[in-house]
């Protein structure tokens, strides 16, 4: 896959009605979670919300937390922490790879 392509999991192609059917959440709940910045659908030129499979998974995770009594502000806080850990992890992997490449090229030099 080229860098310009998006994985099928990230493509925003699912309508809010289908997301509601898949998750068991009402359209109102899904819109509320959008208002709270827990999920960010794509908006078409006509304003139609489009979600990805990743968004559906995130909504299921949110619903599970809500059933456990976790407030949306706490869910958002935890989601941001998780995203930051993933970014840090990706950055560390990139640094390690760069170090391995540099070490490999240094080995071949006199």
TrEMBL record:
UniProt organism field: Metabacillus lacus
Keyword DNA-binding: yes
Alphabetical list of PANTHER family matching this protein: HTH-TYPE TRANSCRIPTIONAL REGULATOR TNRA, REDOX-CYCLING DRUG-SENSING TRANSCRIPTIONAL ACTIVATOR SOXR
PROSITE patterns attached to this UniProt entry: HTH_MERR_2
Any one GO molecular-function label of the UniProt entry: DNA-binding transcription factor activity
Name of a matching Pfam family: MerR_1
InterPro entries, sorted: DNA-bd_dom_put_sf (IPR009061), MerR-type_HTH_dom (IPR000551), MerR_fam (IPR047057)
Domain HTH merR-type, residue spans: 13-81
Keyword terms of this UniProt record: DNA-binding, Repressor, Transcription, Transcription regulation
Span of the signal peptide: none
UniProt name for this protein: MerR family transcriptional regulator
